[in-house]
Amino acid sequence: MKNSLTEGSSFTSVDGMRVRFVREGRGPAVLLHGSGSSLDAFEQIAARLRPAYEVIRLDLPGFGLTGPRPDRDYRIESYVAFVDRFLDRQSVDTCTVAGHSLGGNIAWNFALTHPERVHRLVLMNATGYAGKSLPVAMRLARNPLTRPLLRRAGSRGMVARSVRGMVGPGFTVPEAMVDRMHSMMSGAGNRAAFIDLARTDQADRTPELRRLRVRSLILRGDRIDGQHFARDIPDSRDVVLPGVGHLIPEEAPAEVARRPSRIPRRPVMSRAYVAKGEDRILDENARAAAQGSFVPLSDGVTHYQLAGPDTGPLVLLAPGLTTPLGYWDAVAANLHTRGLRTLAYSTYGRGWSDRVEARYDQALFLRQLSELLDTVAPEERVHVVGTSMGGLIAQAYATQPGVPTPLSLTLIGPAGLAGQPHPLTRLLAVDPLARRLGRLFGHRFLSSHVGNEVRSSDDIARLHRLVDEPYRFHGSIYATLSTVRDFPLSAQHDLYRRAGRLPVPKLLLWGKHDQVTPIDQLDAVRDLFQPDDSHVFDHCGHMVPFEDPHGTARLLATFFEKIN
To answer: What whole-number distance in Å separates Cα of residue 111 and Cα of residue 107?
Structure first.
């Protein structure tokens, strides 16, 4: 076997097999390939998902470098048990499960058997309905007269013809793809394992699909039998990909990578709590008086404001840990007078955006921003500006594959380079303690934090007027403290390095008296982020755009003009 096939791979022992897998990024999402394939089929999808998910892909038993099962048991229920034990070995409790073809069959059966472990379900040309036609190779394997031919078959030319017959008319099969699939299918015992799988009678569990209660996305090529998943899985979303054949992961990786985050959301908040001082429910009546607009995204409703000259370049304004979109009002107004449009928004749990049941981690906020831009400004290149935690979100967005290259990237008092996590993080890791602390003392923590962010008493009073009202909504303190616990607000050096390598103009702004992200981190950020220009506001604390909106807007506009 070529070394290129094992490069970057790891191995673990499950059910007496040496299982090949690749784990990278943060998330997690588990990708299950189809028959005759391997984890390599998801390479392009994994590259696009890594910034938002921890992507785990593996060679299933009977395929790739994992090879055949010692017991030759290829029932779907055995695959489900195998995936369950594999996830145990990886210490993964819950995850998004995505499967193609046979992998999709395993994925939905896994969701039926272990619903507590599946956060989202993605099926790509999945199989599993009784009576549906089988692929030619499967039919040959089941026929005792043609089975010997299949055992001796498998030349590269036959593999090439088979693969080209499975794709849509607009897809040209790369020679490297044929080489890889031929090599994997020729692995020791893999052809015999395929025959064993094809000869295995599978139990029909499709009548049970109606009891699935997991957010589900059904992806299928328009030339492929869609089976009945969209009909039978409640609240699922069916997406047909025009011109795509059976091999969705390799024919349409960009489409697949951007779809999982758009799975319909069920409004469940069982893990959230109501803290002392939260006396309002965020609903349509509460939103009626808010400025701006609202858009439903996969995790929840997002509050945003798109304003300024229609033809001006667009400036995205990403907020910090506690602030709603109104934080940017004065900066945005100044940018509008200079011919620029602005897009400000409130992250989940802040302002009038939904308080969602979720881990408030980097992946959640990256999905929110990516989906918002896809909806409001699809394919448009934008100036990206982020302050404090928003600086980390901005960098994560700008460095993910597949997004339009930003016109520029600006960080203002950015978080992420503290040597140790916030002292509160350790306490919040204990869920019962976190709930009790949040309910009783959450607003006291918030008030203390707000008092440290700006210098003057007038600015503190203005900031409280901005922040306090939306923090009366149920779940606000839960969202903030979950972010402190789950969002990596320290040790983000690698993200800064990746952003520093981006071939886009970069600007760095900082307040000299910043007590939240201290100015002594400035040199480290400069070394990693490699800004083209930087400026320190001698009279400001942590909230430069709030304390000096005119100076902030002037520096931003001047920097953008230099780029143009």
So the answer is: 6
